[in-house]
């Protein structure tokens, strides 16, 4: 009886303070439920249940540590998430698999290499996000304002033959442009796009290496065709993401809206995708796998400056981090290769990002001269 009264007093006091932290009524109710569950399970926050101040001090310390990781728990608001984390005494927890890790937000990178553009006549130039530029072609003009995409003006008529421009985006950079037909393209790091400055009559063909997100301008008379590896993706007006990096050993197409058809070069029969569907084509095995996604954001968030990863093995995540930051990652802790991580980076530096990974994955690292060297934790 006394223990129940002590628990109720501690609960009332903590919820009162939780309200001061800005919890909604729904979040407060959820915290109350989880607090009671934690006491029933014997998860004490202090030496004595009745020591409410000590309990809250422990709780707040855990909240501060959790806040540094920006960990999200369940589908509650941010403050409630941190309280749940502290009450349950778990360091990382969000739909995790047995070997999963959850780490929190933020990262945008910097690299010394600049984005380059090669024009059909052999001219070349570099593009910096903070600079403005104007490029004149035979059929259109491309202009860029500081902090804005490269925008092509509508072409003055169609050309008989496509004259290709190539944009190369190095590791650690991202870039966007608007083609002469109005199609918007976002290019991820370590990506190359070849496209005509003006599209010939009857076709709109581009070629991709790396990763890009397309928002295709509608034109029923001119289908838009993306060639990537030995696949063709045919669309009339839609938004989709295409990824093809060497470590993938394949091509992934994710449809956000509209419809696309994916086929192998030389074969008219292909696979049609509906919104929220993806197709992964294994180049070596010559097999394709289609699936329906709960959320396409994990595949397209990069164009908005977010690096999102879900249940991803570190061996693949390391490659993405290399491209995102324009760095080199050397992993000397082999057990980490198969560990899986989930998270969302927005604004951290490379060092900050790996510090948060370290909190989740238990490893050591050093960052020198653009290289991250990972080693086993001390004592292993």
Automatic annotation (TrEMBL):
InterPro entries: FecR, FecR_C, Ferrdict_sens_TM. Residues 306-374 form the Protein FecR C-terminal domain. Residues 1-19 have a biased composition (Basic and acidic residues). One of its GO terms (molecular function) is sigma factor antagonist activity. Residues 166-260 form the FecR protein domain. Signal peptide: none annotated. Keywords: Membrane, Transmembrane, Transmembrane helix. The chain crosses the membrane at residues 73-94. This is FecR family protein. It comes from Fulvitalea axinellae. The lineage of its organism: Bacteria, Pseudomonadati, Bacteroidota, Cytophagia, Cytophagales.
